[in-house]
Amino acid sequence: MKFDKSKWNEQQDPLFPSSYRPEMFKDLTTNNKLVGMNYNQLIAKLGTPDNKGGGLISYKIMVEYGGGIDPVYTKELRFAVSKDSLISSYKVVEWRK
């Protein structure tokens, strides 16, 4: 699915990222030059990050809760921001309980 900012930021519940994010992820990372953007350009493109701090900003791609209240799987897109506010790299971080 082609990246679309409004669908990327669409949320029914604040605990869950947009259901479109997993489908748009590949287009976003392969057809957009993310490294080299400045912080404000990235925020303009993707919207408010889900987490930020320590020179990193991240966007949830997928969260699965299974049957309980704690997540059993998460996938996020994490960006490293340099001291001069440029996106220096990004990576996908997955966690499974």
Topology:
Layout: H1 5-8, H2 21-31, H3 39-46, E1 51-53, E2 56-64, E3 73-81, E4 87-96
Antiparallel strand pairs: 1-2, 2-3, 3-4
Task: Give structural notes.
The protein has 97 residues and is an alpha+beta fold. The chain has a single domain (5-96), classed as Beta-lactamase Inhibitory Protein, Chain:B, domain 1, CATH 3.30.1450. It has three helices and four strands, in the order αααββββ. It has a four-stranded antiparallel sheet. A hairpin with a 2-residue loop joins β1 (51-53) and β2 (56-64). The radius of gyration is 13 Å and the shape is globular. The termini are far apart.
Short recap of the structure:
The protein has 97 residues and is an alpha+beta fold.
**Biggest sheet architecture:** 4 strands, antiparallel
Reported CATH architecture: 2-Layer Sandwich
What's the total count of β strands?
Answer: 4
Determine and state the CATH class. Answer: Alpha Beta
Structural class: alpha+beta
| CATH fold annotation | Beta-lactamase Inhibitory Protein, Chain:B, domain 1
Domain module count? 1
Q: Into which percentage range does the β-strand content fall? A: 25-35%
Based on CA atoms alone, the radius of gyration comes out at 13 Å
Helix content percent band: 10-25%
Query: What is the number of helices?
Result: 3
Average predicted local confidence, pLDDT = 93
SSE sequence, one letter per element: HHHEEEE
**Which residues form runs of ≥5 with pLDDT under 50?**
none
How are the strands of the largest sheet arranged? 1-2-3-4
